[in-house]
Amino acid sequence: MEIVTHTDRPELHEAAAVVFHERWPEFIFHDDVPKRYMGRVKEHFARYDVMVLDEGSVVAGGWGVPMAWDGTVDNLPSGYDDALVRAVDGREAGVEPTTLSIMAVAVSSSHDKRGMAGVVLEELARRAHRDGLAHVVAPLRPTWKHRYPMVSMTEYAGWTRRDGLSIDPWIRTHQRMGARVLRPAPRSMVIEGTVAEWESWADMMFPVTREYVVPGALNLVLIDRERDRGVYVEENLWVQHS
């Protein structure tokens, strides 16, 4: 196994994108905030954009952004989008970062259940500590939350197995590495589009105005046919690594 950054191996960008796209529903890629900020994220924070190679092929990857956080729950960003904004705007304003927010990790389906996600998380955490950042946090998108879209993240995060760990595989991965749950990220991502766009992204019909259960969505999606708008506000879960 070899760990490289996108700067080290830019020719692997497309292969890495395939790994990420196979793990998330299509609508996730239509959040307007990343569209505005990702170019500067890649420019400013290339050190925290890593890939794991197996015999030269991309099998896992992940990335994060350094941001200012005072260590209190009340000072956490509202979620994924807000963390992006805080990191980029802080960097450009000369604000000293204290924390790495791990934004996403993906593992190719060919390498499931081989500990690759842990390899990525550990590498990102190592880089953060090496750079003198005091904290490592992540706005998690729990793997099984989409099965319970009408359950709040607070309630879902409290569901445990007999061993005391979360019922959710992604939360458990972080718990086994020493992470603790801080609080829900209530407005982590906001995705808006026309009804036609949402029907395309979700591959389903929305014949009337109402909230819908959409495959892959952690919460309900509000469709307003009269206004020709669909709005999805995703709730994630903040955790902190020791």
From TrEMBL:
<protein>
    <recommendedName>
        <fullName>N-acetyltransferase domain-containing protein</fullName>
    </recommendedName>
</protein>
<dbReference type="InterPro" id="IPR016181">
    <property type="entry name" value="Acyl_CoA_acyltransferase"/>
</dbReference>
